[in-house]
């Protein structure tokens, strides 16, 4: 999982929002990749690029999320991103526009 975080952070404009470190003081075998809850921000325009899409949409079994943001002029781009996903199990869109 930490390798995945590192791959995402190589995307232009990406940044670690929180986490990104192994858990300490536990007895979980290292093979399970016990990490702190982690969030990585990736700009929407970069996430949509073919060279980044696979990394941005990889599902991990762990406390991990990729976060982006969109503005009024990017609603269609966000909808395109949702339609482009092959699995819609853990995707979510949050808006402060109650009419959207």
Automatic annotation (TrEMBL):
One of its GO terms (biological process) is L-proline catabolic process to L-glutamate. GO terms for molecular function: aldehyde dehydrogenase (NAD+) activity; L-glutamate gamma-semialdehyde dehydrogenase activity. InterPro entries: Ald_DH/histidinol_DH, Ald_DH_C, ALDH7A1-like. The keyword Oxidoreductase applies. The keyword Cell membrane does not apply. It comes from the Eukaryota. Keywords: NAD, Oxidoreductase. One of its GO terms (cellular component) is mitochondrion. Coiled coil: none annotated. Belongs to the aldehyde dehydrogenase family. This is Aldehyde dehydrogenase.
């Amino acid at each position: 999982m930490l390798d995945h975080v590192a791959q995402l952070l190589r995307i232009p404009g990406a940044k670690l929002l929180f986490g990104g470190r192994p858990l300490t003081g536990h007895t979980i075998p290292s093979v399970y990749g016990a990490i702190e809850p982690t969030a990585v921000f990736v700009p929407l325009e970069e996430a949509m690029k073919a060279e980044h899409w696979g990394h941005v949409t990889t599902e991990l079994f762990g406390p991990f999320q990729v976060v982006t943001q969109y503005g009024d002029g990017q609603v269609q781009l966000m909808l395109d991103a949702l339609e482009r996903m092959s699995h819609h199990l853990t995707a979510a869109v949050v808006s402060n526009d109650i009419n959207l």
